[in-house]
Amino acid sequence: MKKQIAFLFFMLPAISWGQNYIKPEQLDKTRFENQDFYEVKDYTQKTSKKQIVKNVIFLIGDGMGTSQVYAGLLSNKGESYLKSMPVSGYSKTNSSDDLITDSAAGATAFSIGEKTYNGAIGVDKNEVPKKTILEMAEEKGLGTGLIATCAITHATPASFIAHQQNRGMQEEIAADFLKTDIDLFIGGGRKYFNQRTDGRDLLIELEAKGYNVITSMDSLKFAKKGNIAALIEEEHPQPAALGRDDMLQNASEFAIKKLKKNKNGFFLMIEGSQIDWGGHDNNVPYIVTEMLDFDRTLGEVLKFAASDGETLVVVTADHETGGFSVNGGSLETGVVEGKFTTGGHTGVMVPVFAYGPQAELFSGVMENTDIFYKFKEVLGW
Ligand SMILES: [Zn+2]
User: Fold this and answer.
1) Cα 68 off chain centre by
2) 272 Cα to the center of ligand 1, angstroms
3) How far is the CA of 345 from the centre of ligand 1 (A)?
4) pLDDT digit string (tens) for 58-76?
5) CA–CA separation, 2 and 236 (whole Å)
């Protein structure tokens, strides 16, 4: 990401606005020319007859439709880790009350296996809390982790651990983290833990529960034994091209290293949160740089999965954002040109990619809720 100086320059005036969605007025948001190519290594897995799934690593590209996947591929001159995944399928994303889902209903479909209403966090369509796949993993003695490039209390990660009627209840969502024994979480959203209307300081409460409370990526390496609560920003981490750098890759590498020590296996969810925000802003450079970051993170995950042999890796999206299409570009130079049909989400199916033991289960067209049941099946629950 260091070579994207021109992009950085254009984006800088937007940071001080404190917006979720970057609005760089001077930037040509319809075109991106990559300058920072990476090699896609071959992590083809040797086939194992046993097909045992000990670990599940679930990567969610928020707002990542097929055009977003292709834009990442195109900008890296036709190579990506997503492309190297041996199994692919499609997920239907509608929620219980709308053809167009939001991230809360989308992630809750994965986490509890039920379609629910837009805005729901870990509750069914009647607002009844349902046990999530992460909570089940915790109960079965697996290691558990959540990583996001947004506030950890934001809709997608929240839906795996919290149970609230509405995604806006971020202080309540933060308090739900204390009700679990999750081994590790890394993201932003510190203010929902320590600047609360009820006066509680959840950072102190986490420490009392034995967590290493970490407030920057740099200090992660000094963490002692025990659980990790890494809240590296007050609100959201920066976009990848504006100083977040390799946070997602480093956090994922750290998490795998820690969680793989659990002899029962682990469940880890990793979200590329800001692909969605690039879509909302109809911003091709934002989408592509987030896709490249997400794909490199997948490379770290596949490196581990290839050597481990008992790790299932599944990548999908909660929905597509922007009605994005690729209208031009070059596989020789890594240029991407795109157009959009909306500033919101769309109802199209999104891709599913899988790698590792029992990956074939994730081929074909499925409901988003099926992913929950497939995880349970491969884990033998
Ligand atoms: Zn969105």
Assistant:
1) 14
2) 12
3) 6
4) 999 999 999 999 999 999 9
5) 20
Task: Give the bridge partners for 237, in sequence order.
Answer: none
Phi, psi of 224 (to 5 degrees): -85, 180
Under 8 Å between Cβ of 233 and 206 = no
Tokens 């529960």, residue? 209
Query: Based on the number of CB atoms within 10 Å of its own CB, is 8 exposed (0-12), middle (13-18) or buried (19 or more)?
Result: middle
pTM of the model as a whole: 0.93
For residue 122, what are its two tokens?
């870990």
Q: Kindly list the catalytic residues.
A: 103
Gap from CA of 118 to ligand 1 centroid (Å): 11
Dist. CA 151 → ligand 1 center (Å): 14
**Distance from C-alpha of 255 to C-alpha of 263, rounded to nearest angstrom:** 15
- The encoded tokens of residue 232 equal 């590296």
SS3 203: helix
Q: 3-state DSSP call for residue 373? A: helix
> Torsions phi, psi of 150, nearest 5?
-130, -170
- Secondary structure of residue 366 in the 3-state scheme: strand
Enclosing H/E stretch for 300 = helix 284-308
Cβ partners under 8 Å of residue 9, min gap 6: none
97 Cα to the center of ligand 1, angstroms? 17
DSSP, collapsed to helix, strand or coil, labels residue 111 as helix
Taking a C-beta distance cutoff of 8 angstroms, is the pair 265, 249 a contact?
A: no
* CA dihedral sign of residues 214, 216, 222, 228: positive
What pLDDT sits at residue 226? 92
**Which DSSP state fits 47?**
P
User: What pLDDT sits at residue 45?
Assistant: 79
Reduced to 3 states (helix: H, G, I; strand: E, B; else coil), residue 309 is: coil
pLDDT at position 47: 64
184: amino acid identity, one letter:
L
Residue 244 CB coordination number (10 Å): 22
50 band by pLDDT with thresholds 50, 70 and 90: confident
